[in-house]
Amino acid sequence: MAGEVVSEKRIGPGDRVSFRYRVLAEGGLVDASEEPVTIIVGEGRFPPSVEKALLGHTEGEVLSVWVPPDEHYGWYDPRKIQFLPVEKIPPQARPGETIFVPDELGVLHPARLARRDSRVAVVDLNHPLAGKPLRFDLEILKVEKISEPQGGQKI
Question: Which PROSITE patterns match (predicted)?
Answer without folding.
Answer: FKBP_PPIASE (PS50059)
